[in-house]
Amino acid sequence: MTFFDPSTGQWQGCASGAPVGPRAAAVSSRRALGPSRLVGFAYSLNPYRGCAHACSYCYSPEVIRDYRPWGTWLQARIDLPRTLARELRTLPRGRIGLGTVTDPYQPAEEGLRLTRRCLALIIGAGWPVSVQSKGTLMLRDLDLLASAPSGTADIGWSLSGTPPELVPLVEPLGAPPQRRLAALAQTAAEGIDTWAYFAPLIPGVSDEGVLQDQVSTLATSGVKRVFADPLRMRGQIHARLVAALAHELPQAARRLEDLGFVRSEGERLRQTVRQLCADHGLTFDAEGPFVEASPFEAFSPQRVPLPSRSESFLVQEPPWDS
Ligand code: SF4
Predict the structure, then answer these.
(1) Could you report the per-residue pLDDT of 111-138, keeping only the tens digit for each?
(2) CA-to-CA separations, 308 to 55, 256, 314, in angstroms, rounded
(3) CATH number at residue 291
(4) Count of structural domains, the chain
């Protein structure tokens, strides 16, 4: 397993020093498709439990209620294609969100090809599917997506409007935003229904100038639809974000304790994206893919002691290979 050791400031566990993510442990699951709470989806499908991209704002630990250090462990639902094949024959047909909880195109997928096999089954059965990732490995499967019947498959990459120097703090191991923007353009150019999802918009981190640049790039890339969703503070997200931001942005870390600020600034950022889309002729949809029906859960931020530099999850040079 590869992991970031905050006491040494080094990645541990592989000879090159470049993290390739945790080794996936194989697990089996009796069900493949789960009911989805997301708007527009009948089912969710997640080939992996855990995520090597290790975003500090990730909601997934709260969804799966597993609070081991995020990004240091991974389970692959190794028999998922077989289970899915059976369910596609027996369950009522409905739209599937692929990667609703964890990224389906994290590094382990390159060798395991679980997501690819599931996608082939879904498209082969003619079921509608929507896929989201932060990894450019999704480009590998454009051949499958291009073969889907018209109007049944769409894909998107998420962005957060985070300034480049802060990306290593909040989304250290996903593909860099510029790579995601290039992937969006490539996919749209191939005629596949492609959307961009600004999520989460992080109060105190997401930057209007960066949002302007990213929306402007999208407008020239052929991407037609844009969605946006502000940070939803819940569970341990606050503590993880504070740990990530504490050294470089201590004021921003402190402001995250103010739930009123988090809500109002998050909404302001969403309206900023809405206006930028209007300015650039892009369709903005606040109710788009992967947006939950209920935006905020009850949450009372606890005052979290700001960690020292040796305890913060600072990654100096964000490595990635997906
Ligand atoms: S890529 Fe998605 S699932 Fe993975 S850590 Fe980041 S937000 Fe969570």
Answers:
(1) 999 999 999 999 999 999 999 999 999 9
(2) 20, 18, 11
(3) 3.20.20.70
(4) 1
